[in-house]
Amino acid sequence: MVVEIESLSSGGDGVARLPDGRVVFVEGGVPGDRVSLELVLERKRFVRARIETVLDPGPGRIEARCPHFGTCGGCLWQHVSYDVQLEAKRRAVIDALERIGGVSVAGELQIVPSPSPYAYRGRARFVECEGGVGYRVRGGEGARAVEVCPVLVPSAERALAERGERVREAGNAPTRRTREWVVTTGSDGTSIVTPAGARKKARGDATTASSVLVEVAGASLRVSGESFVQGNLLLWDTLVEAVLEACLVGGRGPGTRFVELHAGVGFFTVPLARAGLFGVAIESASSALADLRENLAQSEVHRSVEVVAGRAEARRDLARRFAGADLALVDPPRTGLEKPVRSALAESGPPRLVYLSCDPGTLARDLADLTSAGYALTTACAFDLFPQTPHVETLVTLERDPDPR
Ligand SMILES: C[S@@+](CC[C@H](N)C(=O)[O-])C[C@H]1O[C@@H](n2cnc3c(N)ncnc32)[C@H](O)[C@@H]1O
To answer: How far is residue 292's CA from residue 137's CA, in Å, rounded to a whole number?
Structure first.
């Protein structure tokens, strides 16, 4: 069966139509490719397929840079030119907002590219496996060792090679439970490697330093190995500036009261407090909370922000806190806002809401609820934090009349 690939799906596959009208998701397909297919899965309304032969390559098909491309689960799009990747992500955001969220973006949705489509990533998770450390295998079980990873910044890539060397020297015990490591890179290019998740016992093997310094918008932030930090080091300043601008629009400035959920180490909290705003920052992870408190104190803005520990959706006082604020800032994980958070925003959310999302699907689901509660989408912009992958970050602002009666 021969088809022409029309677009890229939000999951990374090429998308085409079969003669019977069904959509076919083609692994590795690039828009404009004419390919013959090998079917993998058939359903009533869609089909999954692999490429048997690329008969005519599309204009965006390029050579992948990494020798591990194809088996490594990290990058799905190294064979797609960067301009085609950006357009696919822009379309994915627009489609999700329109189809799932029922909202449309006024004007052209802009996507901010990564300053470099390689050597941008300061944070990654390595999995111990036979032959060293690597990443999960694409679409399969287990992990495969890698020696290079061109999306990492140079010091993180060196850390990957060194960790692999240490694992090989120690010898892999086949019965040992999989161990994972996280590399975190600071603004000075120093990378630290710390054990991931609960396996803290491995700390003895970690690099001596357990935190790095991240300099953004004039603030200096401590980030411990266990705390979240935005993955694309080259877009740190751009992201903070965009979030600050979104929060401060309409003459908001010193004295503005905010409620921030998912505050992390204070990546946005500290710059907001330094701009004269005051408010509440809610965060659930203990490591991020310790960094957040330290970062607020170091910047001498700890009196401006009340730090609240725990899961946002579990707080009974959330609606009351929203009611007393001018502005809410949320930056949830991929799962989006929990139902109780959406309900509290619907009940007594502040006039302005700034939402940073790493998943257009859950963002759109949440926007459907929020617009039903009277919020209107005022701006939207996408950021390409993860070139060579289908992931896309979206920043939206919403407003509603503080007193509709
Ligand atoms: C996408 S990160 C953003 C962190 C921070 N805004 C930044 O830019 O660095 C999400 C953060 O939310 C925290 N988090 C996850 N689930 C949460 C919840 N239910 N309530 C509060 N915080 C949560 C995570 O620990 C993490 O620090």
So the answer is: 35
Check pLDDT > 50 for residue 174. no
Instruction: For residue 228, give the ligand 1 atom closest to its CA.
Output: 27
Q: Tokens 């994972």: give the residue.
A: 180
- Compute CA distances 308 → 267, 278, 298, whole Å: 16, 14, 18
Would you state the structure tokens that stand for residue 248, as one six-digit string?
A: 């401060």
Is 341 touching ligand 1 by the criterion CB < 6 Å?
A: no
**CA-CA distance, 378 to 387, in Å (whole number)?**
27
- For the full predicted model, state whether its pTM sits above 0.90: yes
Residue whose Cα lies nearest atom 4 of ligand 1: it is 264
Q: Show the CA angle centred on residue 178, arms to residues 173 and 184, nearest 5°.
A: 120
Tell me the per-residue pLDDT of 84-133, one tens digit each, with 9 for 90 and over.
999 999 999 999 999 999 999 888 999 999 999 999 999 999 999 888 99
- Superfamily assignment of 83-116+232-399 in CATH? Vaccinia Virus protein VP39 (3.40.50.150)
Atom nearest to 229 CA in ligand 1: 9
As its CATH architecture, domain 2-60 has: Beta Barrel (2.40)
Q: What angle do CA 131, 192, 285 make, to 5 degrees?
A: 105
Closest ligand 1 atom to residue 313 Cα is 19
Contact predicate 296/266, CB 8 Å: yes
Query: What is the CA(282)–ligand 1 centre distance, in A?
Result: 8
263 within ligand 1 shell (Cβ under 6 A): yes
Is the CB of 295 inside a 6 Å radius of any atom of ligand 1? no
Query: Residue with the nearest Cα to atom 25 of ligand 1?
Result: 285
Ligand 1 site, residue 267, Cβ cutoff 6 A:
yes
Indicate the average pLDDT of the chain: 93
> CB of 313 closer than 6 A to ligand 1?
yes
Instruction: Please give, one letter per residue, the 3-state secondary structure of 138-177.
Output: CCCCCEEECCCCCCECHHHHHHHHHHHHHHHHHCCCCCCC
Give the pLDDT band of residue 313 (cuts 50, 70, 90): very high
Distance between start and end Cα atoms, the chain: 61
pLDDT confidence tier of residue 401, bands split at 50, 70 and 90: confident
